[in-house]
Specification:
Elements lengths: L5 E3 L8 E5 L2 E5 L3 E3 H7 L8 E3 L8 E2 L5 E3 L6 E5 L3 E5 L2 E5 L3 E3 H7 L6 E5 L8 E3 L4 E3 L7 E6 L2 E5 L2 E5 L3 E3 H8 L9 E8 L8 E3 L4 E3 L4 E9 L2
C-alpha cells in the first residue's frame, strides 16, 4: 500500500485546509484554489485531466485550470487524474479512472453488502489483505488489481473463549450475552465490559449499556458481573 505524504504550503501561522491529490495529502492556506494551482502544487502537467471525487449519485467533476474549488467544504476533497486502470472484483472486470481507489468505492462498484469484508488477493504464503472502507489502494502497483469478498466470520475472544461473530459491530448487551447466556437487563445487575485489540475506530476501552463498538478478528473482551442489589 502507498503511504500518505503531507505537503505544507508555506510557513506556519494561518490555519490550513487539508486536501488530497492522487492520494497525496496537501494543506492549503487558502480556502479557494484554481484547477491550475492544484495541478502546479501537486506537480501535475497543466493539461492533465483533473477530477474532483464526488459522493454518488452525483458524477465526479472535471476541474478546469480556471475553475475555483472551495476546499473548506464538510468532507476533505479528493482530486485525481483520469486514467483507466483495470481490476478484478469477485471475478468481474472493472476499470478505475483513478490510480487510487478507496475500499468504499470497491464496495459500491461491486455491490458488496455490509455483511461481507473485501480483501486484496495476495500471493502465497502471505494472507489476503483486508481492505477497510477508508483504505486507499494503488492500482498501478503490481499485484494490486485482484479483490474478492466473503461473509464476515470474526472470532471474538470473550472471557478467554472463542466465539464466532458475523457482524461488523457488537453492542454491550450482545457482549454480555456471549459471556453470560442467562443475562437479562435488570436495574440491579450491572456488568463491567472492557476490550482491547479492536479496529482503528475503537482499539481499546470499556462499554456501558447502550454502547456499540466496531469489531475485528481476534478482538478481546472481558466481562465481569456486579450485583447492585
Amino acid at each position: 500500500m502507498k503511504q500518505y505524504h503531507t505537503t505544507q504550503e508555506g510557513g506556519g501561522g494561518k490555519p490550513t485546509i487539508p486536501y488530497y491529490v492522487e492520494n497525496q495529502l496537501f494543506n492549503s492556506k487558502e480556502q479557494y484554489r484554481t484547477g491550475l494551482e492544484i495541478r502546479l502544487i501537486a506537480n501535475l502537467p497543466p493539461d492533465s485531466q483533473l477530477f474532483l471525487a464526488v459522493t454518488p449519485p452525483w458524477q465526479d467533476e472535471e476541474i478546469g485550470n480556471d475553475f475555483r474549488v472551495d476546499l473548506a467544504r464538510v468532507e476533505i476533497e479528493h482530486f485525481y487524474v483520469k486514467k483507466k486502470l483495470p481490476y478484478i472484483l469477485n471475478g468481474a472486470s472493472f476499470e478505475s479512472k483513478s490510480q487510487f481507489i478507496q475500499g468504499k468505492r470497491l464496495r459500491r462498484e461491486g455491490n458488496i453488502p455490509e455483511t461481507q469484508d473485501i480483501f486484496l488477493a495476495v500471493a502465497a504464503p502471505w494472507e489476503p489483505e483486508l481492505i477497510e472502507d477508508d483504505t486507499f489502494i494503488d492500482l498501478a502497483l503490481p499485484g494490486n488489481d485482484h479483490f474478492f469478498s466473503k461473509d464476515i466470520d470474526y472470532v471474538l475472544i470473550v472471557n478467554a473463549k472463542d466465539h464466532h461473530w458475523k457482524k461488523k459491530t457488537i453492542s454491550y448487551g450482545e457482549v454480555v450475552k456471549i459471556a453470560y447466556p442467562q443475562y437479562q437487563e435488570k436495574p440491579t445487575e450491572v456488568y463491567t465490559v472492557t476490550y482491547k485489540k479492536g479496529p482503528v475506530q475503537n482499539p481499546e476501552g470499556s462499554m456501558v449499556k447502550g454502547d456499540k463498538v466496531f469489531v475485528k478478528n481476534k478482538m478481546f473482551f472481558h466481562v465481569t458481573p456486579t450485583d447492585k442489589s
